[in-house]
Records
---
Amino acid sequence: KAGVTQTPRYLIKTRGQQVTLSCSPISGHRSVSWYQQTPGQGLQFLFEYFSETQRNKGNFPGRFSGRQFSNSRSEMNVSTLELGDSALYLCASSLGGGGRVLYEQFFGPGTRLTVL
Amino acid sequence: AQKITQTQPGMFVQEKEAVTLDCTYDTSDPSYGLFWYKQPSSGEMIFLIYQGSYDQQNATEGRYSLNFQKARKSANLVISASQLGDSAMYFCAMSPTGNQFYFGTGTSLTVIP
């Protein structure tokens, strides 16, 4: 089974631009989560999608948005980029259980975004 | 509110020795899962082990075991027979619902030959 894939792997943008990151989950996984990882803040949860619906959202400004398609692939968009948006953006997929049935998340390799 | 605490920013262990990485959590949810991930310098997060809050026995996966003490809200990772390839960042995570994960700040483990 192929793992979680993320494209692009590296990205350099300038302040004020926008960027779209893509994530393809493991086949059969319906839940996709996005995280921002920085040395100072660690891993911070952005949002989670399940069956094309955003189920959870972290504490990020509205410049960060996402969506999920019917094939479970997900995109994350950041508009009006700021220097502080430079980070490793990780996507994770899971079967998306709940209640007493929990499934681990499998992570992609990440997209390293540098904002100049 | 959910909170994960990893108090050891860095740890060193001799090759072939065992090491324990600490993790404590805080949640008011009666049902939750605890997870450990490894992040090598390459950046990818690798799932290691899972413990459900209702599981009676501690989880084990090969050289990894989870020392789960529910009353103390701790979920320490034990790595036995450390190998050089174990050098990495280790993250403890908790999920009450399965669709939102809370991560600790991580512990950097260095295995010394």
---
Amino acid sequence: DIVLTQTPLSLSVTPGQPASVSCKSSQSLPQSGGKTYLYWYLQKPGQPPHLLIYEVSNRFSGVPDRFSGSGSGTDFTLKISRVEAEDVGVYYCMQATQTPLTFGGGTKVEIK
Amino acid sequence: QVQLQESGPGLVQPSETLSLTCTVSGGSISSGRSYWNWMRQPAGKGLEWIGRMYSSGSTSYNPSLQSRVTISADTSKNQFSLKLSSVTAADTAVYYCAGGGRYWGQGTLVTVSS
């Protein structure tokens, strides 16, 4: 199984400041049809995960442009250019390139 | 916009079979090259992939659960279902259905208890 390791486990950010979450894969994520199926989600309490980024760097519909994704191979990053109060919650990465699909352990983001 | 909704019993007896259904609207489960997932999340913990069904009808399961899991579809109702047999308290979780990696249902809490 592909293990995804997220760092940091938690992050406390001042509004307006940037934030970054790392997702490292235990093996290089293969491409399928030229795509790497690495996703980023935000889960708020009592809600399902909400898709932010798909295929490493594509923002999902309605996601603010302060969110961006990058990376390749084994190293992937989610960046928030200017954190807002509504960005609090737990961020997860997920790979869907190889079964079983696997998730990172999550990064909790809170506002200072 | 694709929408998914889970339904099924919220309480299951130990050793029994957990059965959930996901109703999909805004898209067909049998069209294109789509796949339809089941995930779960125990309270306060991370996410676990259970398995998925392709639009062709083929399935793929998490090896950790494979001996107990069946995912099937009712294309006439645009639904797909999860059956998890021989459940224990460790199977207590919020269960989500998802379309690909993009669209998720709201989730349904299933508690395994006598």
